[in-house]
Design a protein that fits this description.
The chain is mainly alpha-helical. It contains three helices and no strands. It is elongated and about 110 Å long. The termini are far apart.
């Protein structure tokens, strides 16, 4: 069967166009697969993080204790300023010292709870 040159050229152009489209689609597929792998890694990392900082996690309890201790330091700093500022501020300074003591007690209890969970075989 003979094919004229015009038909042959049209078919060749169509094949070339389809090959180029195929290559572009393959490249896009590779991009999507790479992105999918990246997303999977991110989901796994997020899942691990959630497990690590889950409710009652010793790590989370210790982080909370650190935050409470930082707050206690701020109470102490404010009490020192209030005490130096004016004698009328001594009630404020005393209130801040009490708040600092309560905060330190809370931090201690958070650390105790973290230690208990670890001794009982909880997350580390």
């Amino acid at each position: 069967m003979a094919v004229d040159s015009e038909t042959y050229m049209a078919v060749c152009e169509q094949v070339s166009r389809l090959q180029a489209e195929n290559e572009a689609l393959r490249a896009r597929l590779a991009e999507l697969e790479k992105d999918n792998e990246h997303q999977r890694e991110r989901r796994n990392a997020a899942r691990d993080c959630i497990k690590k900082i889950g409710d009652g996690s010793p790590w989370l309890l210790r982080k909370q204790a650190e935050a409470v201790e930082a707050l206690a330091k701020r109470f102490q700093d404010a009490a020192d300023k209030a005490d130096r500022a004016d004698e009328d501020e001594s009630d404020t300074a005393l209130t801040l010292i009490i708040a600092k003591s309560l905060a330190l007690k809370e931090a201690y209890q958070l650390r105790q709870k973290a230690d208990e969970i670890e001794r009982a075989g909880g997350e580390k």
